[in-house]
């Protein structure tokens, strides 16, 4: 007789894309719910994020498009200058994958707001390096204070987009740590079910994925499935 034990996995994402080596990934959304937890694989690791991040929108409704752009760019420049006085604060932009704000980069484009006439905006992320020796609450407060103290030019305004998120640099760096833990777990399963059983593991070629598990913590995993066959 053969019996089979299969662990099937459903992948739940919190507003993030799959990670690639060398990329900084932004993770938004709330912490894991109980339903999300049971949909995750048995083997995971927990890691502190690299940054706490707040997404903001800089909006300007000056009549002239050139003037709107000038005033928004000057506001970003003021934020960059302020961040250089604080080693823990950085500015980034992007969708899913973040890159440092560079005012000479043509990819930093202002968007015309079709719902409001004569209005342009740009979305950026303000980040603080996560310091494990200090409370997340204190660092979040400092991040928001930095944004509140921004020197806004003329008709430029700031709008907060969502709650505080997280970012992590190169999640793929944890691949072999996760694989090693999966291997150890399956060695335990083999000992538990006996020598007449074989174990097949599928999905190990998949990318490292993640869920937000706490205010400043991420749960990282690889979506794998284990099949135990006993004769």
UniProtKB/TrEMBL annotation:
Origin: domain of life: Bacteria
First and last residue of the signal peptide: 1-19
Keyword Signal found: yes
UniProt keywords, alphabetically: Signal
Full protein name: DUF541 domain-containing protein
Species assigned in the record: Aliikangiella coralliicola
Phylogenetic classification of the source organism: Bacteria, Pseudomonadati, Pseudomonadota, Gammaproteobacteria, Oceanospirillales
């Amino acid at each position: 007789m053969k019996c089979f034990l299969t662990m099937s996995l459903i992948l739940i994402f919190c507003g993030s894309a799959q990670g690639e080596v060398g990329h900084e990934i932004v993770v938004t959304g709330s912490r894991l719910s109980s339903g999300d937890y049971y949909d995750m694989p048995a083997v995971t690791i927990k890691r502190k994020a690299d940054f706490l991040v707040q997404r903001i929108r800089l909006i300007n409704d000056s009549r002239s498009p050139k003037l709107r752009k000038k005033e928004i760019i000057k506001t970003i420049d003021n934020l960059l200058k302020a961040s250089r006085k604080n080693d823990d604060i950085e500015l980034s932009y992007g969708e899913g994958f973040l890159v440092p704000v560079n005012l000479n980069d043509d990819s930093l484009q202002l968007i015309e707001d079709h719902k409001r006439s004569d209005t342009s905006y740009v979305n950026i992320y303000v980040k603080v390096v996560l310091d494990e020796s200090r409370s997340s609450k204190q660092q979040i407060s400092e991040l928001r204070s930095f944004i509140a103290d921004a020197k806004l030019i003329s008709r430029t305004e700031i709008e907060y987009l969502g709650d505080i998120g997280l970012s992590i640099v190169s999640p793929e760096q944890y691949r072999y740590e996760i694989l090693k833990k999966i291997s150890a777990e399956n060695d335990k399963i083999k000992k538990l079910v006996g020598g007449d059983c074989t174990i097949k593991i599928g999905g190990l070629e998949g990318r490292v994925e993640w869920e937000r598990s706490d205010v400043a913590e991420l749960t990282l995993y690889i979506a794998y499935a284990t099949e135990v066959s006993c004769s």
